[in-house]
């Protein structure tokens, strides 16, 4: 089944949560169906969902008999222990022969080559493809289609379509997330249930009060976005260069999906048949009356602001397809002596012959913080590419000044979490004009590809969780990488034992646990200089920092502190210790850097240093390492 408008192919891509639903929708007006196996995919909450191996075989066969395409989701993140299972599954898929695999973790690509499994690869929305250089990099790796970032507008998709011959897929209907794809790690760090691994417990759907200074809003749902609804914009999707119109909903039931597929299929056919008299709204009322949440066009036509925030049914806290509660507000786990004993015991069991001395790296928000680090002789400084307001981005003069006085310290210029095409041009321009830095901190595959001739370190937004992905990034140009903050202790130890010399770990502070295009400061008086907090239903205040690009960063409200386990981490293979403390005020920032310099010089001092910090009343967590 194929559809064309003005010689452009159009595909309506439908989800199927299990084989019974697949059999119910394969005769409908979709051109392709996507679905997943029982493991290794991004929809794992419901036991009676997903496909057995036998059902995968049968579903692909049925799709082809109906003249339709079948895409299988292999779109999870994988740890080292799961690589063997992944290998076996890819070999099975080579026999099943679907039309494509939808992939998040880059480890899948070399594994397919290793076993000579020739199935086209589509990059998942969880690869967060949002710039030309990422598309160039993925194309070089053999990817044939990208699912665009949910924050991409149709104007931008049109630009990408004109600049590349890559197929573009775009979500047109269904559940959306407030955070950029793969850039919400809070569920994984809080519960051990990762949004990047199909088990998100949706802290974004909690109720919060918005706080700034002495003002608090009434409790509502400021992170709960509306569902996507592009039914009335079929012409704009086609004009935007979109090949595949993707319906979200692998956890939805058959009746609901039947309604959605029929409405969109009919709309596409009517537009193709007679665009001049096309009725955009024929089934709008039907879809609206049967919506799960309220609806919007999200970022298709630009930033939606507060109009994208939902209130319909959010107070129930339920998963609409099953009635189960996602999660309730939960305290970030404190560090206990019992937990520390278990962790240190486990680390001792995995000692290696460590020959690398410990090195300390620190991300900084200001030149003042950078100079503190130079005074304390930190090994590596990362100049933030997402400088938090009200500080300003680093100037050329400031960077040149730091390079003149840096001594033995290496200074790296960080890229923003989201690095758009204009920013690539800016970085390339200033580097070509002679800006001297020791290297770059890359946050996305586009940055790795574009600046492969520079000394590159991979930042945590790359979400590297296994040795195969780390190796591939090494081949692309990374000198070392930052272990995903969602990695638990066993996963971290495994990575240290296999890639330790090339690995870095955040041992203090807070990474960004939700990275958002959505601006929560729209809820308050933007003229104020104070930080905004979200107070959850359990009374905990989550800090929200706005960066120099206007994007929002939620941080942990308890800083990570690995002081009590530093020695064990080093003995297990960690040589690059990182402080993610750019958000701290000067006095506390200086204190933390000083403490870790002392700790890495003498691991036997860690216990006393930790007790000293605790006495100052600072609450700490081990986040994913403590789960």
From TrEMBL:
Q: Name one GO molecular function term.
A: peptidase activity
Under the heading Pfam families, the entry gives: Peptidase_U32
Q: Which UniProt keywords apply?
A: Hydrolase, Protease
What's one GO BP annotation on this UniProt entry?
proteolysis
Q: Is Acetylation given among the entry's keywords?
A: no
Q: What is the name of the protein in this document?
A: Putative protease
Q: Which organism is it from?
A: Anaerosporobacter mobilis DSM 15930
Q: Which InterPro entries match?
A: Peptidase_U32 (IPR001539), RNA/ubiquinone_mod_enzymes (IPR051454)
């Amino acid at each position: 089944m194929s559809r064309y408008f003005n010689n452009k192919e159009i595909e309506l891509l439908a989800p199927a949560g299990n084989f019974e639903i697949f059999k119910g929708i394969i005769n409908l007006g979709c051109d392709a169906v996507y679905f997943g196996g029982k493991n290794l995919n991004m929809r794992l909450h419901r036991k009676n969902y997903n496909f057995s191996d036998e059902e995968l075989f049968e579903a692909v066969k049925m799709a082809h008999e109906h003249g339709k395409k079948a895409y299988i989701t292999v779109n999870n993140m994988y740890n080292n222990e799961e690589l063997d299972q992944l290998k076996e599954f890819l070999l099975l898929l080579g026999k099943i022969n679907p039309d494509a695999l939808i992939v998040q973790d880059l480890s899948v690509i070399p594994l397919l080559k290793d076993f000579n499994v020739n199935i086209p690869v589509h990059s998942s929305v969880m690869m967060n493809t949002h710039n030309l250089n990422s598309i160039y990099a993925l194309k070089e790796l053999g990817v044939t289609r990208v699912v665009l970032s949910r924050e991409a507008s149709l104007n931008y998709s049109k630009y990408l379509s004109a600049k590349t011959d890559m197929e573009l897929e775009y979500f047109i209907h269904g559940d959306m997330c407030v955070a950029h794809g793969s850039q919400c790690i809070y569920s994984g760090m809080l519960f051990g249930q990762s949004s990047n691994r199909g088990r998100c417990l949706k802290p974004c759907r909690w109720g919060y009060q918005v706080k700034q200074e002495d003002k608090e809003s009434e409790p509502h749902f400021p992170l709960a976005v509306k569902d996507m609804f592009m039914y009335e914009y079929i012409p704009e999707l086609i004009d935007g260069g979109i090949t595949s119109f993707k319906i979200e909903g692998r956890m939805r039931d058959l009746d609901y999906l039947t309604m959605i597929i029929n409405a969109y299929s009919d709309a596409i056919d009517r537009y193709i048949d007679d665009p001049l008299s096309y009725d955009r709204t024929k089934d709008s009322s039907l879809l609206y009356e049967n919506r799960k949440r309220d609806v919007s066009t999200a970022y298709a036509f630009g930033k939606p602001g507060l109009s994208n925030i939902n209130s319909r049914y959010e107070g129930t806290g339920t998963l609409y397809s099953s009635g189960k509660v996602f999660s309730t507000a939960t305290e970030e786990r404190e560090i206990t002596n019992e937990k520390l004993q278990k962790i240190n015991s486990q680390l001792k069991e995995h000692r290696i012959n460590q020959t690398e001395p410990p090195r300390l790296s620190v991300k900084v928000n200001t030149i003042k913080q950078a100079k503190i680090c130079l005074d304390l002789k930190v090994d590596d400084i990362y100049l933030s590419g997402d400088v938090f307001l009200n500080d300003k981005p680093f100037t050329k003069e400031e960077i040149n000044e730091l390079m003149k006085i840096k001594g033995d310290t290496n200074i790296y210029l960080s890229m923003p979490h989201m690095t758009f095409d204009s920013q690539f041009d800016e970085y390339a321009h200033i580097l070509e004009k002679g800006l001297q830095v020791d290297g770059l901190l890359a946050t996305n595959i586009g940055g790795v590809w574009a600046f492969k001739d520079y000394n590159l370190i991979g930042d945590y937004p790359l979400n590297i969780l296994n040795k195969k992905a780390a190796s591939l990034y090494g081949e692309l140009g990374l000198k070392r990488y930052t272990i995903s903050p969602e990695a638990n202790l066993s996963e971290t130890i495994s990575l240290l034992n296999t890639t330790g010399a090339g690995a870095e770990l955040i041992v203090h502070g807070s990474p960004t646990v939700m990275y958002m295009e959505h601006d929560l400061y729209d809820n308050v008086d933007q003229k104020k200089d104070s930080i905004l907090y979200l107070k959850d239903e359990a009374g905990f205040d989550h800090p929200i920092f706005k960066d120099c690009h206007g994007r929002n960063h939620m941080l942990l409200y308890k800083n990570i502190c690995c002081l009590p386990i530093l020695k064990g981490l080093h003995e297990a293979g960690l040589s690059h210790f990182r402080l993610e403390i750019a958000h701290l005020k000067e006095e506390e920032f200086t204190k933390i850097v000083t403490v870790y310099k002392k700790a890495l010089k003498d691991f036997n001092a860690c216990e006393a240093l930790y007790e000293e910090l605790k006495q100052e009343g600072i609450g700490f967590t081990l986040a994913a390492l403590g789960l």
